[in-house]
TrEMBL record:
The lineage of its organism: Bacteria, Pseudomonadati, Bacteroidota, Cytophagia, Cytophagales. It comes from the Bacteria. Residues 8-147 form the Transposase IS200-like domain. One of its GO terms (molecular function) is transposase activity. Pfam families: Y1_Tnp (PF01797). This is REP element-mobilizing transposase RayT. One of its GO terms (biological process) is DNA transposition. InterPro entries: RAYT_transposase, Transposase_17, Transposase_17_sf.
Length: 176
């Protein structure tokens, strides 16, 4: 991985993780909950500090930092683990009307990119962007919180449950 995309310990980053082909996987709460559960695990066991987040239908944005350890490595493990869990959830969800189509596309993207065996869920890069000034931090936090509004999902950022803008969010975040 190029030095440009490495995320160093103790630095604050804006991160985006997108599903291959921009597939709308996160239209179902059970798949979003897998992401939340694994972010919570990373907070408790891996030193991940989450300051802002949103889970959209086909991607998620985070403002994060990892104390004393490299963030890029953790994001890679996070993506691998969540991909396996979400694909298994799709395979086992008898009410998933898009099951065959989604699984076909995950296999297709794995064939296109020889790095992956079987299925390919997340796009390769998480695009870590260093947040080195308060102004940039505020811009990225606003961008994250306004994402569901711009997408027409809600009228106010605090109404979207899978976002740190919502007081009832299932994932607790740190103050910036």
């Amino acid at each position: 991985m190029s030095e440009y995309r490495k995320a160093h310990p103790d630095e604050l980053y804006f991160v985006t993780m997108s599903v291959v082909g921009w597939l709308d996987v996160f239209t179902r709460n059970e798949y979003k909950d897998i992401v939340i559960d694994n972010l919570r695990y990373c907070q408790q066991k891996e030193g991940l500090e989450v300051f802002a987040y949103v889970i959209m239908t086909n991607h998620l944005h985070l403002i994060v930092r990892r104390r004393d350890k490299e963030l890029t490595e953790l994001l890679g493990r996070f993506k691998s683990f969540t991909a396996k869990k979400i694909i298994a959830a799709i395979e086992n969800n008898v009410q998933e009307s898009r099951r065959e189509w989604l699984l076909y596309l995950f296999r297709h993207f794995a064939k296109v990119n020889k790095q992956y065996v079987g299925n390919h869920f997340w796009q390769y890069s998480s695009h870590p962007t260093l947040l080195d000034t308060p102004k940039i931090m505020e811009q990225k936090e606003e961008y994250i919180h306004m994402n569901p509004v711009r997408a027409g999902i809600v009228n106010e950022p605090q109404a979207y449950v899978y976002s740190s803008a919502c007081a009832d969010s299932p994932l607790k975040v740190m103050e910036m």
